[in-house]
Amino acid sequence: MPAPRRATLATVAASAGVSVATVSKVLNGRSDVAPATRSLVQSLLQQHDYVPATPRRAEAGGPATIEVQFDDDLNAYSTEIIHGAIEAGDELGTSVVVSIRKSHQRTGGWARDLVAAGRRALIVVTSELTGAQLGALSRARLPLVVIDPLNLPTTSVTSVGSTNFAGGLTATQHLLSLGHRHIAYIGGPPNSACNQARLHGYRAAMEASGAPEPPGYVRAAHFHYQDGVVNGASVLDLPQPPTAIFAGCDEIALGVMEAARSRGLRIPEDLSVVGFDDTQIARMASPQLTTVRQPLREMGRAALRTALRLAAGERIDSHHVELATELVVRGSTAPAAPTGDRRPGTPTRTDSGTA
After folding, report:
1. Are 314 and 354 in contact (CB under 8 A)?
2. Per the database record, which ranges form the HTH lacI-type domain (predicted)?
3. What one-character DSSP code corresponds to residue 354?
4. Which class for 22: exposed (0-12), middle (13-18), buried (19 or more C-beta within 10 A)?
């Protein structure tokens, strides 16, 4: 499908009923334009998503600039993505700018402002994109690459991710191999493409083994620590609590571990926990977290390389790239306790002898 035509000065001038010279004066901040005319022209420039034909780019011979944009506060996951993008940028002579912008803030002249600021391409991480936002980027001729998108409004969007389904399958199979049958899944937003794939992997493994999925065993919120605490508490307080929990990310897993500790449960003796990502916090946890490793730095590198190819007008082989995941077994998982032993939800005795 051909890209939409870029609005020109003549387009805006015709809409406003003024000369091209007048529109040019408004763009250049000249004072010899009536206030009412200036306001009208500025409104139409925004309405048409006008982008200058020669926006401010990197100086000739200087580095291109790619913006990596997040929808939420930065965390261990974000740091790994940024690290990979910066490494690739250093190798390829590209500057990397990092920003945080909520999806609802990507309105009006958002895409036009990015181009005017000299951005050659945009990488958006774990965010939701609307058709209107994609249209604005297309009109601005600003290439887009998304990492772990919350949605894919069109198959033509170029994206980088990991083998989330295989990761969810492997994580659940690991717990099943340890003898666990009551396994819960606590994930991120239900509309998140990567969360859906991890959940499908979990369910595929459970169904293949004939293990039950009791009501309340699947929970969805956000990829945040506190959501792990809250949802971990909810499943552990069920009449038949799980003996193992697969968490949709490392932050959720650490929240689950805290919820378990607050109930007197030992990890992994009373509850096994598996995360997803293998960020630094997985190795800082106590015990260290068994998790599915996403190649997050390589995902950042791949996104940066792809964005540069798109900015150069090159064709890419595939609109979606998935990098392989790998299970990393550490100390947060262990064989299920024999039938008849204390089940999760029953407080253990402390060294002082009190419950």
Report:
1. no
2. 7-61
3. -
4. buried
Packing angle, helices 164-177 and 193-209, rounded to 10: 40
Task: Tell the residue number behind the tokens 């039938």, with chain if given.
Answer: 339
> pLDDT per residue over 265-312, tens digit each?
999 999 999 999 999 999 999 999 999 999 999 999 999 999 999 998
SS3 245: strand
Continuous H helices in the chain: 9-16, 20-27, 35-47, 76-92, 110-116, 131-139, 164-177, 193-209, 225-236, 250-262, 280-284, 296-311
Q: Which tokens go with 276?
A: 């997803």
Model pTM score: 0.78
pLDDT for 59: 43
**Which SS3 state, helix, strand or coil, does residue 204 take?**
helix
pLDDT digits (tens, 9 = 90+) for 112-164: 889 988 999 999 998 888 888 888 898 889 999 999 877 766 667 899 999 99
| 8 A C-beta contact, residue 281 and residue 43 | no
Q: Are strands 183-187 and 144-147 parallel, antiparallel or unpaired?
A: unpaired
What is the rounded CA–CA span in Å between residue 79 and residue 125?
12
Q: Tell me the CA distances in angstroms from 342 to 215, 240, 308, 329, 338, one per residue in order.
A: 22, 12, 56, 24, 9
Domains and CATH numbers, the chain: 9-47 (no CATH), 64-162+297-322 (3.40.50.2300), 164-295 (3.40.50.2300)
**Beta partners for residue 245, in sequence order:** 184, 273
Tokens of 272: 């096994």
Q: With CA atoms as reference, report the closest residue to 291 among 255, 258, 250.
A: 250
Query: Using CA atoms, how far apart are residues 83 and 256, in angstroms rounded to an integer?
Result: 27
Burial class (CB in 10 A: 0-12, 13-18, 19+), 199: buried
CA distances from 122 to 45, 200, 226 (A): 22, 30, 30
Give the distance between the most distant pair of CA atoms in the chain. Answer: 87
Task: Compute CA distances 63 → 56, 90, 308, whole Å.
Answer: 13, 10, 11
Block residue for tokens 């990596």: 68
Query: Could you identify the residue written with the tokens 């250049």?
Result: 28
For tokens 């995360």, name the residue.
275
Give me the residues paired with residue 274 across strands. Answer: 246, 290
